[in-house]
Design brief:
The chain is of the alpha/beta class and 278 residues long. It has a domain at 5-188: Alpha-Beta Barrel (TIM Barrel). The chain is 40% helix and 13% strand. It has helices at residues 26-39, 53-63, 83-97, 118-131, 144-153, 172-180, 200-209, 213-224, 235-242, 251-258, and strands at 5-7, 13-15, 19-20, 43-45, 71-76, 104-107, 137-140, 160-164, 184-188, 227-228.
Length: 278
């Protein structure tokens, strides 16, 4: 099964379906990532904050896959927003992944309440991009006001904005702002930590297609144009999440799922979240 790709605003191709390792314990990350590779995933999404970059790197090395066959994303931890700290933290990511470059590197959170302005952080990422050690750079959890400042004050337009998106938080306005600036939308928490899977609209559509509710929701994301990376450590579920390209939702089904929006988050509000790990 071939996963479609999306061309980012700098021409780099990113697989639309990836494998996320958020909350995968470090000791389980290598095995989970190797399973994902065996199933057919070639896009891996990790983060410094996850504490499991090393396991991803081990899986990459042991997979036997050529480096150019895979797409690897990581994100800057919240305690390293100062310019020089960001550069040093990125060096740590490459060391833990045991890679010469990543395909995408993101500012994980805008942290609007801290002393270091995220535009300063973005300038550091621009230097990383210019060095060739990140093929693309972007942001995560940036609201429209944050994104517009980056576009206006930076020299490089972010390739992606990775935000919480699911049927209970469709983020139509923010996705439109992303698109306006040529920024691809990546969706984290794509099934709302399972909260949407018992919804009768989704279960009914799943029955119609002979698919699981999770497959229907992931297919909804893909048809909307989101880049999505579900997480699981169970091989059966990892395989299930991959099998979403052999059916298609109708426009009315897409509309029924989108109409479930409640503007309900499973994670923090980026306008208020200023957590710095100790």
């Amino acid at each position: 099964m071939t996963v479609p790709t999306i061309a980012l605003n700098n021409g780099v191709e990113i697989p639309q379906l990836g494998f996320g390792v958020y909350q995968v314990p470090p000791e389980e990350t290598k095995g989970a990532t190797l399973t994902a590779f065996e199933v057919g995933y070639r896009h891996i999404d990790t983060a410094q904050m996850d504490g499991n970059e090393e396991g991803v790197g081990q899986a990459i090395k042991e997979s036997g896959l050529a480096r150019d066959e895979m797409f690897v994303t990581s994100k800057l931890n919240n305690g390293f927003h100062a310019h020089d700290d960001a550069l040093a933290a990125f060096d740590g990511t490459l060391e833990r992944l045991d890679l010469e470059k990543v395909d995408l590197f993101l500012i994980h959170w805008p942290l609007p309440g801290i002393d270091v302005d995220f535009v300063e952080t973005w300038k550091a990422l621009e230097e990383i991009y210019a060095s060739g050690r990140a093929r693309s750079i972007g942001v995560s959890n940036f609201q429209a006001t944050h994104l517009r400042r980056i576009v206006q004050e930076g020299d490089v337009v972010p390739a992606v904005n990775q935000i919480e998106v699911h049927p209970y938080l469709t983020q139509d306005e923010l996705r439109a702002v992303n698109a306006e600036h040529g920024v691809a939308t990546e969706a984290w928490s794509p099934i709302a930590q399972g909260l949407v899977l018992d919804n009768p609209v989704i279960t009914g559509i799943a029955t119609e297609h002979g698919k699981t509710p999770a497959q229907v929701v992931l297919r909804w994301h893909v048809q909307r144009g989101d880049i999505v990376f579900p997480k699981s450590v169970t091989r059966e579920r990892v395989q299930e999440n991959f099998e979403i390209f052999d059916f298609e939702l109708s426009p009315s089904e897409i509309g029924f799922i989108s109409a479930l929006n409640k503007d309900e988050r499973t994670g923090p509000n980026p306008d208020e979240f200023n957590y710095i790990p100790s």
